[in-house]
Design a protein that fits this description.
With 52 residues, the chain is an all-alpha fold. It contains three helices and no strands.
């Protein structure tokens, strides 16, 4: 799961987490409705892609 949102956020850092999730779901990189915003945010934080 972590790879798709990280790549989408790194491509365009201004993208919101909701937008990152939507793109990854549409591209079938994430199962629709399974990724929560808080979980994706935590993963992005740990990888240093978003600020704390």
């Amino acid at each position: 799961m972590p790879g798709a949102p990280i790549a989408k956020k790194q491509e365009v850092p201004e993208r919101s987490i909701e937008r990152v999730i939507a793109i990854a779901e549409r591209m079938k990189e994430l199962e629709p409705g399974k990724a929560r915003r808080s979980t994706v945010h935590r993963v992005l934080q740990r990888r240093g892609v978003v600020a704390s």
